[in-house]
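[job 4471] stage=fold_predict status=RUNNING
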Amino acid sequence: MDKMWTTTEVARYLNVTDRDVEWLVTEGRLTGYKVGGKFLRFRPDQVQALKGVVAAREQADPALRPAAEPMRARVREFFYCYDLYLLSAVLLVSVVVYLLASGA
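[job 4471] inference complete, writing structure tokens
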């Protein structure tokens, strides 16, 4: 059996957002399988069959093409996801500099 795809992998393949993939599942156009009761996974053959439908829909109505995610939103999401790691790194560097400066 082929490797199951994640929501993000499907979104990249179809050139849509993760939210659009979830909408396709809700509408019944794409079958998602829950792994561990939480994470959606998709069969690649089903996604590939859906690719033509999505492409045809975009050609019929250019307004349905996904808009590029603004840089500001991407930066905000980055800091939202990695704020603890960034704070930990700054704190660790501060402690190391303090220890080196105090001669300990």
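[job 4471] summary: The chain has a mean pLDDT of 82.
[job 4471] exit 0
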